[in-house]
Design a protein that fits this description.
This protein has 577 residues and is of the alpha/beta class. The chain has three domains: 191 residues, Aspartate Aminotransferase, domain 1 (Alpha-Beta Complex); 87 residues, Histone, subunit A (Orthogonal Bundle), CATH 1.10.20.110; 249 residues, Type I PLP-dependent aspartate aminotransferase-like (Major domain) (Aspartate Aminotransferase, domain 2, 3-Layer(aba) Sandwich), CATH 3.40.640. Helices cover 45% and strands 10% of the residues. It has a seven-stranded mixed beta sheet, sandwiched between helices. Helix 12 links the parallel strand 6 and strand 7. Helix 7 crosses helix 17, helix 8 packs across helix 16 and helix 18 runs parallel beside helix 22. The radius of gyration is 26 Å and the shape is globular. The protein starts with a helix and ends in a 21-residue tail after the last helix.
Length: 577
C-alpha cells in the first residue's frame, strides 16, 4: 500500500532512526506479498567480526580459570584469584602446550611485544590480563587499567595520529562505547564550566543525528551554528568538504565548541590536511579557546588517517569506539582521549574563585587537593556522580577485550586485517555503483563506510531543472525511500535527518552481502527512472541527453518491469565518496 504524501510529510519530522522503523514495516509487508528479499542498508552495524582477538580472549579465559583454581580449589565449583608471582612463566608454558589452539599465536606475540617493546614487567602484564578476564573486582585505577591503556595508546597512535608519536602524551578513559563517552564529556564540560548552558557551539554537518539532538536538550540548550559541507566539484556535485567561508564561522570567539564526526557520517569523508590546518590556524589566532570534540570511529577505514587530536592536540577531546572496525558494538568499547597539555586543565586554573570553591567541594571527598584533579579524571568521577568514583570505569572483561583488539592491530605489522576490511567495503561500493550504472569517483579522503547520495542535485545537474522542479512540486523528499521499501523491500535512511540535503539518502556499505548492493543500486536507478516516466507522462519534456543503462532489477531476474524503459542512470551522486 502506497503511503500518502500527507503521511510522509508527518513522518519526516521524526529522527531517521525512527522513520526507519516505518520503512522496515513497509518493506516487510512487501516481502510477505512477494518473493523479494528484505534488504536493510540503513544499519551501520558491520556484518563481520575480528575473530583472532576473540579467540585469544576465550583461550586466555581458560588459562585464567586454571590460575584461579591454582590459588583456591578447596570447594567444588569455587576458585580463587589469579596470583601475580611467577604467572608469566606459567603463561608461557600454557601457550607452549596450547600452541596450536586458535588465539595462542596472538597471545604469544602480544606477550613478546608488551615486554620487549612496551617495556612491561612480564608478571604484572600477564596478571592484569588474567585478573581482568576473571572480572573479580572493580577497575583499578578507575580511569583505565595500566597495560590496557598502553596497548590502546599504541593502537590509537598508529590509527588516529598517522603513526606519529605525539609530542606530549595523552591520557585515556575507557568507556562503555563511544555514546557513553559523548554523554560523559558534555556533562563534565558543563559541571566544570568548560561550557555553559546556552553557549554557542558549531556542528560540522551532515552528522550522526543524535549529535544534532544532544545540544537541544534542556540541560544544555546550546545555540547551534552549522558548518556545512557545501563544497561542490566541477560537475556541481557534492564532495562533502568545507569551504573556507564555512570554516570562517569558527573564527568567532563566541563559538565555544566545535562538534564533528571525522570521517563524517553519513558521507564518510575525512577532513583533508588543508582543512585541518585552517582550523588549527583559527585556534592559534582568533578563537584560541575553542573546544573541539571529535568522534573518529571511522578513521581506521582510511590509510594514513590523522585526527584533529593529532593536529590540534591542546584544544581537542577525542572519542574513539572499537565498534565498527572490529565488529563489536555489543561489547560497548570506547575511549576518551585528552592530551596531557590541554586548554581544559588550563581553563580550570583560571576559573573565578567562587567556581573553584564549588568544584573543590564537589570533588573534595576524592583528594585533599581537589583543585589539582585533571579534567579527564573529573570526567571519570562525574560518570559515577563523584560519590561512586571508586566503582567507575569500563568492566575488566571489557577492558581486556579492548586490549586484545589493540594488540591484534598493533601486532598486525602488514595491516592484513585493515586491508581486508577496506576490501570488503570497496567491493560493496563497486557493486552498488554497478547497479546504479555509474562509476566510482576516485578520492583518497573517503572511508566508504556509508555513502550519501543527493538525488535532487543529480537531477538538477544531469537531467533538467524542469524535472527537478516537478519532483519538488509533487513529492516529499522521503518519497524515494518509501518507494524503495514498498516496491523492493529495501530500507535506506533519509540524509535530511542527518542535516544533509533533503533529497539525499544514506546507504550503509557495512551490513549486507556484496550481491545485495548491486540489487540496491539497480532499484535506486529504477525508482528514479519511474519518476522520469511519470514526469514525461504528465507532459514534461525529456532531458536532451540520455545515457543507456543496464537492465532493471525485475528485468535482470526475468520478470517483467513495470517501470519505464531504462534511460538515464540517476544518482551519479555517488560522488558522495
Amino acid at each position: 500500500m502506497k503511503t500518502s504524501r500527507a503521511e510522509q510529510k508527518r513522518l519526516e519530522s521524526l529522527s531517521p532512526f525512527e522513520l526507519k522503523d516505518t520503512l522496515i514495516s513497509l518493506a516487510n509487508d512487501n516481502t510477505r506479498a512477494t518473493d523479494m528479499a528484505y534488504l536493510n542498508a540503513g544499519r551501520g552495524n558491520p556484518n563481520w567480526i575480528a575473530t583472532e582477538p576473540r579467540e585469544a580472549f576465550f583461550l586466555l579465559g581458560k588459562f585464567a580459570l586454571a590460575e584461579s583454581r591454582l590459588d583456591f580449589d578447596e570447594w567444588e565449583g569455587i576458585g580463587g584469584m589469579p596470583q601475580k608471582k611467577g604467572i608469566a612463566a606459567r603463561f608461557e608454558k600454557f601457550l607452549d602446550t596450547n600452541r596450536k589452539e586458535p588465539g595462542a599465536s596472538l597471545l604469544k606475540k602480544g606477550l613478546e611485544h608488551g615486554v620487549g617493546k612496551l617495556g612491561f614487567d612480564a608478571d604484572a602484564f600477564v596478571w592484569e590480563m588474567a585478573d581482568a578476564i576473571i572480572g573479580d573486582h572493580y577497575p583499578e585505577p578507575p580511569r583505565m587499567l595500566h597495560h590496557a591503556e598502553q596497548w590502546a595508546k599504541a593502537y590509537l597512535t598508529n590509527e588516529m595520529f598517522a603513526g606519529k608519536k605525539p609530542k606530549t602524551d595523552f591520557d585515556l578513559f575507557a568507556t562503555e562505547g563511544g555514546t557513553a563517552a559523548m554523554c560523559y564529556i558534555f556533562d563534565s564540560a558543563i559541571v566544570n564550566k568548560i561550557l555553559h548552558p546556552g553557549d554557542t557551539i558549531a556542528i560540522m554537518t551532515p552528522i550522526f543525528t543524535p549529535y544534532l539532538e544532544i545540544p537541544e536538550l534542556a540541560k544544555y540548550n546550546f545555540k547551534v551554528v552549522h558548518v556545512e559541507a557545501d563544497m561542490l566539484n566541477k560537475d556541481g556535485l557534492h564532495v562533502w568538504q568545507y569551504t573556507e567561508k564555512e570554516l570562517d564561522k569558527l573564527a568567532d570567539p563566541g563559538i565555544k565548541a566545535l562538534f564533528l564526526v571525522n570521517p563524517s557520517n553519513p558521507p564518510s569523508m575525512m577532513l583533508p590536511p588543508d582543512t585541518m590546518a585552517y582550523i588549527k590556524k583559527i585556534t592559534e589566532t582568533t578563537n584560541p579557546g575553542l573546544t573541539i570534540i571529535t568522534d573518529d570511529v571511522y578513521g581506521t577505514f582510511i590509510n594514513g588517517f590523522e585526527s584533529l587530536m593529532s593536529t590540534i592536540p591542546r584544544n581537542t577531546i577525542g572519542v574513539y569506539s572499537y565498534s565498527k572496525y572490529f565488529g563489536c558494538t555489543g561489547w560497548r568499547l570506547g575511549v576518551i582521549l585528552i592530551n596531557q597539555d590541554n586548554i581544559f586543565d588550563a581553563a580550570l586554573k583560571k576559573l573565578p574563585a567562587a567556581d573553584k570553591k564549588a568544584l573543590n567541594a564537589r570533588y573534595g571527598t576524592l583528594t585533599l587537593e581537589p583543585e589539582k584533579i585533571k579534567f579527564i579524571d573529573r570526567i571519570v568521577a562525574d560518570s559515577r556522580s563523584v560519590a561512586l568514583n571508586h566503582t567507575a570505569g569500563a568492566s575488566l572483561p571489557q577492558q581486556l577485550q579492548m586490549m586484545l583488539f589493540s594488540m591484534f592491530a598493533v601486532c598486525d605489522e602488514t595491516n592484513k586485517y585493515k586491508s581486508n576490511c577496506q576490501a570488503i567495503i570497496d567491493r560493496r561500493l563497486h557493486a552498488l555503483t554497478k547497479g546504479m550504472g555509474v562509476k566510482v569517483p576516485p578520492t583518497k579522503y573517503a572511508a566508504h563506510y556509508y555513502i550519501e547520495l543527493d538525488l535532487m542535485r543529480y537531477i538538477e545537474t544531469t537531467q533538467s531543472p524542469e524535472f527537478a522542479a516537478w519532483m519538488r512540486a509533487n513529492f516529499e523528499p522521503v518519497d524515494p525511500l518509501f518507494r524503495l521499501a514498498e516496491k523492493s523491500s529495501i530500507v535506506l535512511m533519509n540524509g535530511g535527518g542527518f542535516d544533509g540535503p533533503e533529497w539525499s539518502v544514506r546507504v550503509s556499505l557495512a551490513n549486507l552481502k556484496m550481491a545485495d548492493y548491486e540489487q540496491i543500486g539497480k532499484w535506486l536507478r529504477e525508482v528514479m527512472e519511474g519518476y522520469l516516466a511519470e514526469f514525461e507522462a504528465s507532459g514534461g519534456k525529456a532531458p536532451a541527453k540520455r545515457a543507456k543503462t543496464a537492465a532493471s532489477p525485475k528485468q535482470a531476474s526475468g520478470k517483467k518491469s513495470t517501470a519505464a524503459p531504462a534511460k538515464k542512470a540517476p544518482a551519479k551522486k555517488a560522488a558522495a565518496k
